[in-house]
Amino acid sequence: MEFSTVNDKINLYRKKVEKIKLGGGEKKIEKQHAAGKLTARERLDSLFDPESFQELFMFSEHRSNIMGMENKELPADGVITGCGEINGRTVYTFSQDFTVAGGSSGEMHEKKICEVMDMSLKCGVPFIGINDGGGARIQEGVDALSGYGQIFFRNTLLSGVVPQISIIAGPCAGGAAYSPALTDFIIMVKNNAKMFITGPEVIKAVTGEVITDNELGGAMTHATVSGLAHLVAENDHDALNLAKRLLSYLPSNNLEEPPVYLTDEASLGKDESLNRILPDDTKIAYDMRDIIKKIIDKGSFLEIQEFYAPNIIIGFARIKGRSIGIVANQPICSAGVLDINASDKAARFIRFCNCFNIPLVTFVDVPGFMPGVEQEYNGIIRHGAKMLFAYSATIVPKITVIVRKAYGGAYLAMCSKDMGADRVIAWPTAEIAVMGAEGAANIIFRKEIKAATDKKQEYINRVAEYKEKFANPYIAAGRNFIDEIIEPANTRKHIIRALNSIITKREMRPPKKHGNMPL
Fold it and tell me: Lower Cβ count inside 10 Å, N or C end of the chain?
């Protein structure tokens, strides 16, 4: 067809753009909305600052000509790619369009994603992927598989250089699930998000197990059982807002410092309630989050993996406007003991903070590593070693606050002075020892207890003797394993001052490709 005017060509362009922006068409869009989901373009409109999104490769087309594909038009090849600004900061992204061939990915779809990942790396800005697709496009065969491999390779190149966030807003199955697993954080939407390598039907056929897709790979399954999901959202809007909040704690790349926000909370004054927050009986639990929230800037705590391995707490917060990463034992869950899942959860978070120059503040109340045959058989030594490795390898500023118990190897694993802590602060309630008084008395005074007429009373007396000698922070402070013993009410002031004095620290390590972490 020939066009006699420039206006004709412009009108043709407008029609093409309008058609592409409709994706799979009005009926498919209505079906998407009926499922409680936003469209791919609506998600981007919600994610980015108004009028800031720049779409790239809008006119991309597949080139498959077999199995009926030669007659199919797939607008934008089922994925919207580009960049925009979130609170004024550039971010590259893709958003899969479920209304187009179920969001399935083929050669050009994946090439588009690779292009924006490359730009994210070159420009040193974060990358966000919004997943809502049916996996590899079978008709494109090995080309689709190759595209996945190229994405996985880029996920690894970007890792530790720019933050990567995955939002799972629909299905993400088979090989497609591995790309989010390679990113830093996964946000899953309740009810709609599904992640698994093989679905319920395949599992039933192969193993005979019967399970629903939500039980197998839903948001809460991955938040509580597998630990794959870092944050759970109520709906698409909530997921996008969580991604924006998460980004607010992070630098754009590993060469930058995290953003500092002006705050009215400059006060270094006492919080007397911290002096009363611990129970007198050390066997009684309390919620460590109550302590954390009294010390950080009000409302700034974003807990990560809240529902997985709840015996340890990880998350981001601000203190006097500065981003920090928090690792803390949680006494209300298994007494805050370290087990396999808690060790994995903490170690990965510690390493992330180190990648992106985020200071670490560790709150300690740990009775030890979890005992038990199952823990030993499943590798508690190997998994616990991950925490030792992570803290030892970390060179960002590290502040440790010992609140109460700090026993045995778990004391070391919670960033003791020997693991490279720059500042160790202890409350007067701190107990630093090889083990708890009850267990220690049975070992040290075994003969005396056995020989005593009143064995129970002798045991009680020996426990009290051990507590008097060791259940305090003063012996450790006398050996310089503790920098300061402080009144709990002054904790915020001491952390702020410590951060100010060590934020510029530089620490050199022996040159090497990387250490060999006990995975």
Answer: N
